[in-house]
Task: inverse folding
């Protein structure tokens, strides 16, 4: 695409890709457990979430938590502690299962029966860019009416698909949509 930035940050601009900011905001809306997995309380909460039903256990196994039921019971009882590698697997499985569980709810809330959700796009930080090279890029608002592809790509953890889905929405900004490929923040609520 002609509007894609090839050498972002060459002159000192700072920001992150728009789809990364959207994923971060969707993660905030998913409502993950705040206590870290390394703390006993956080570990127990995640294990409870991943093992409370047969469906949750199957989803955890599909997400990569492939330990025996005996090991899970030992972790829950506190007689054994998971290794650092297993803590990472537990965290990844928890986030994957949580995303799958809240995806349908988030899609419905964000689509709002076709009315969509208002999104604030905060432009890149140009404070380190020399004055003659700075662009006039202001805060923009956009009403995104179809979140299906964005949320499904976020759920799958597919950055490329999420980027394409987000760019399809940003094109509605008009001829200057490429100026908002990189942003400081993207805000919306569900």
Result:
């Amino acid at each position: 695409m002609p509007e894609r930035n090839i050498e972002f940050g060459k002159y000192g601009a700072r920001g992150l890709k728009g789809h990364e900011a959207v994923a971060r905001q969707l993660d905030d809306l998913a409502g993950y457990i705040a206590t870290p997995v390394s703390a006993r309380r956080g570990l127990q909460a995640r294990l409870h979430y991943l093992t409370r039903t047969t469906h949750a256990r199957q989803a955890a196994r599909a997400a990569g938590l492939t330990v025996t039921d005996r090991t899970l019971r030992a972790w829950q009882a506190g007689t054994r502690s998971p290794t650092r590698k297993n803590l990472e697997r537990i965290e990844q499985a928890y986030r994957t299962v949580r995303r799958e569980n809240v995806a349908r709810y988030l899609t419905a809330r964000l689509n709002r029966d076709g009315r969509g959700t208002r999104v604030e796009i905060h432009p890149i930080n140009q404070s380190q860019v020399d004055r003659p090279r700075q662009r006039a890029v202001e805060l923009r608002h956009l009403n995104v009416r179809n979140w299906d592809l964005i949320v499904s790509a976020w759920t799958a953890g597919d950055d490329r698909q999420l980027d394409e889905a987000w760019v399809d929405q940003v094109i509605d900004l008009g001829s200057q949509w490429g100026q908002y490929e990189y942003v400081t923040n993207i805000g919306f609520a569900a």
About this structure: The radius of gyration is 20 Å. The mean pLDDT is 92.
